[in-house]
Write a structure and sequence with these properties.
This protein is an all-beta fold. It is about 0% helix and about 50% strand. It is globular.
Amino acid sequence: MVAYDITEIAGGFAFPEGPVYLRDGSVLVTEVAGGALRRVRPDGAVELVASLGGGVNGAAIGPDGKVYICNNGGSVFHEHGGLLLTGTETEEFNQGENYSGGRFERVDLATGRAEVLFRQAGEIRLSAPNDLVFDSTGGFWATDTGKTRARDRDRAGVLYAEPVPGATGKYLLSERIFPVNGANGIGLSPDESTLYVAETHTARLCSWDLSGPGKVLPRTTHRPLRGKVLNALTDGSSFDSLAVDSEGNIAVATIGARGGITVFDPAGRIVEFIATGDPLTTNLCFGGADLRTAYLTCAASGRLISLQWPVPGLALPFGA
């Protein structure tokens, strides 16, 4: 475990997720429990961008400068010891009576206007979209974690939204990998030849080779779309979202008794673990002039924090 100097930027969020660094130095934060998208100014001031309802999760800036949102439809939460936790005191399910259906949305930062892009991928109903990442062509990969109920949970996977030629802001959404066991965090290698997905329930970090935008190279097994398992934690932790740095390391938000960030090299070896003191550390992004500031969401305690990363983060195609 490596000790880092942690700075609290803002607090009071209702289960924060999806941090996105903007060029003006502010950071967008989603609220899974609050159903909102907020902006945190460099001085720590917090502003409401849009109220979306449901469960606002992963976010990313698209080629049109708008914010693309994963909405998991809403989840179940309870308070315990001053922390906001998922599920109830006795159950770990996350689909309750407030569930409004999974969807992808897009928000105009200038006006706060929101629109629903997708509730389905072809004939497949979206369950709980969780995280997304754009590639350099303007398409985006995304995960659908699936909702969990008291006795069963959805089977879902990985999606790709392909830009429609000649139609700005239009996409065709389709499922590209199925099934994935609780697909959560998603990212691309610096050369965009490898797709990474963190599985929540298994705490596995998996990878797929790509032959081009939205194209998965089949493996030579009887299940050609099964990913390669780079590593799996066995200490009872679970995985949430992830980010990739400029050296290709994969930083995975890790939830459980020792919440923090587990950093893997491209081969899947653990480089280090960064403790945050929050058991539900959900996501991170890179920002600052040199992309060496990591912004982390600590969902149980409702905080946005930052720390200095050893190397620059990976510059996203349409982000900072």
